[in-house]
Write a structure and sequence with these properties.
By secondary structure, the chain is of the alpha+beta class. About 40% of the residues lie in helices and about 10% in strands.
Amino acid sequence: FRSFIPGFFCLFNLPHKHYGNAYQEMATHYGAVIIPARVRKPKDKAKVETGVLVVERWVLAVLRNCTFFGIAELNEAIRVKLAELNNKPFQKLEGCRRSLFETIERPALRPLPAQAYEFAIWKKARVNIDYHVEFEDNYYSVPYQLIKQEVELRVTKSVVEVLFKGRRIASHQRSFEKRKYITEPGHRPASHRIYLEWTPSRIVNWANTIGPNTALLVKQLIESKPHPEQGYRACMGIIRLGKAYSSDRMEKAAARALACNAVSYRSLKSILKNGLDLVDPEPEAPNIPVIQHQNIRGKSYYTGKEGVPLC
């Protein structure tokens, strides 16, 4: 098993830094020690490389010209060839791979843990001023005292755990929707706001320095959320846009977003990025009265409400 671990590392190739903790968790779960092979040193895992070569020759090469119509059929063929390979006598040693396993390796094996190993992704994140952390376009709350602190996320297929200095401080059911806030009421500060430099009134006051349209957009954005803090992230994005674009463009873009009922940071950013605020709005179509005549069929004719067949 010790020779298998370096091969596992190379075979699955886990270069992402967030997988290091997951790899360690797997080793701890199974009571194994990880000894990674050095880069470009195949002799560090010679037994693994040799085992792969033997399987390629005695299993894959034999089945390369066969046609299979399902995974079950393919697995059955591999199972037969693998049994033949394990029972094949050694050329220079007594016995075979099967007898070697039964006499030496099986007695040394430990029983599998009662609970199956669950893969987890680890990721570092920084707590936003709305006391939420982001993972895959969803936002999970943490105690508001940790605003601006760096935390670690441990994410499984069903749970998102937040750790601070090695201690779990929040746990949420994982959501696979997009742009959803998962908030624990106990994480929110008293009076439903954060005691830092940014408050809803300060954000609206800042927007007023740009113009009334921007202020109205920010106000509607905050009021559209179940809790004001959930709109802080989008408002901070609008503040960053205010540093990149002129007040005149921000006002025109905000007016266009309000007219389209697109009250969001993404919509405002898209309008500015594509220059839609510089385009004059299309004039409204004149209100021309509908002509009433006995030879003109109305819309009710095509909906079958006049008793006239549709075909």
